[in-house]
C-alpha cells in the first residue's frame, strides 16, 4: 500500500509529458488533409494533446482551422537528396520529435529515377539521424501509396524492400513500425491528380497511420 502514491505519481508524470509527433515526407505529407483527420480523431482519445511539430503549416484547403498544422512535409523533395544534404538533421534540431511518420520515395521514383537501393540507403541514413536526435525515437515508415498514371514498378519494389530493411534497423529502444499505405489504395480512385490523395485517400492514409501512432504514443 505504501507504494501506491509513488505509482500514482509516476502515472501522473507520464501523462503530463508532452509527446512531439512529426509528420515527415514530401507533398503527400505537406499538402494533404490526412493530418487534419488524424488530429481530429485523436481528440477523442487520451492522446488529444500530442504536439504535432515541424517547420511547415501548409495543407490542401482542409477547411479546418482548429487542428495542429505543424509538419515536416516538403513538396518535390527526394529521400536521397534529403539524406545526402543532411536536411533532416537541421529540421530535427529546430523541431525535436519523439515519434515520426515517414512517407518518402515517390519523387525519387517518379521524377528522380532513383534505384530502390539508393532510396533504402537514404532511409538508413535518416533513421540514424533520427536516433542521433532522440535515441528513443519511435519511427513509423510507410510503404508508399500507388500513383494513378504511368508504369512505375519500382514503387511496389520499394514497398517489398521496406519490411526486411526495417527489421534489420529495428531497435528495442527505438522501434520501427512499417505501415502499408499501398494495399487497398487506388492510384486513380483515391488520388485527385494521380499522385496526391483526395478525401477518400486522406481518410485511408489516416486510418492506416492511426493504430501505429497509438501504439507509438
CATH level-4 homologous superfamily of one domain: SGNH hydrolase
Number of helices: 9
Instruction: Report the end-to-end length measured between terminal Cα atoms.
Output: 29 Å
Strand count: 6
Helix/strand-derived category reads: alpha/beta
Overall mean confidence score, pLDDT: 94
Quaternary organisation: single chain
Q: What is the CATH topology assignment of one domain?
A: Rossmann fold
The general outline is globular
- Low-pLDDT ranges: 1-14
Helix content: 40-55%
Instruction: Look at the structure and give the CATH class of one domain.
Output: Alpha Beta
**Major sheet size, sense and barrel closure:** 6 strands, parallel
Strand percentage: 5-15%
Radius of gyration: 17 Å
Q: Which CATH architecture of one domain is right? A: 3-Layer(aba) Sandwich
Helix/strand order: HEHHEEHHEHHEHEH
Protein name: Carbohydrate esterase family 3 protein
InterPro entries: Ester_Hydrolysis_Enzymes, SGNH_hydro, SGNH_hydro_sf
Pfam family, one: Lipase_GDSL_2
GO molecular function: phosphatidylcholine lysophospholipase activity
Amino acid at each position: 500500500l505504501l507504494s501506491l502514491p509513488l505509482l500514482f505519481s509516476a502515472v501522473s508524470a507520464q501523462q503530463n509529458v508532452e509527446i512531439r509527433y512529426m509528420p515527415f515526407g514530401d507533398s503527400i505529407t505537406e499538402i494533404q488533409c490526412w493530418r487534419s483527420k488524424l488530429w481530429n480523431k485523436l481528440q477523442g482519445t487520451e492522446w488529444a494533446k500530442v504536439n504535432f511539430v515541424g517547420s511547415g503549416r501548409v495543407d490542401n484547403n482542409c477547411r479546418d482551422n482548429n487542428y495542429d498544422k505543424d509538419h515536416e512535409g516538403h513538396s518535390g523533395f527526394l529521400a536521397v537528396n534529403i539524406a545526402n544534404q543532411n536536411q533532416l538533421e537541421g529540421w530535427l534540431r529546430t523541431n525535436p520529435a519523439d515519434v515520426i511518420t515517414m512517407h518518402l520515395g515517390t519523387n525519387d521514383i517518379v521524377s528522380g529515377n532513383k534505384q530502390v537501393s539508393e532510396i533504402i540507403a537514404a532511409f538508413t541514413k535518416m533513421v540514424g539521424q533520427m536516433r542521433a536526435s532522440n535515441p528513443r525515437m519511435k519511427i513509423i515508415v510507410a510503404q508508399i501509396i500507388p500513383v494513378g498514371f504511368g508504369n512505375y514498378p519500382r514503387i511496389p519494389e520499394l514497398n517489398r524492400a521496406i519490411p526486411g530493411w526495417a527489421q534489420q534497423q529495428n531497435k528495442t529502444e527505438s522501434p520501427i513500425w512499417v505501415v502499408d499505405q499501398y494495399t487497398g489504395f487506388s492510384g486513380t480512385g483515391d488520388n485527385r491528380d494521380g499522385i496526391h490523395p483526395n478525401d477518400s485517400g486522406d481518410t485511408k492514409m489516416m486510418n492506416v497511420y492511426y493504430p501505429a501512432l497509438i501504439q507509438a504514443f
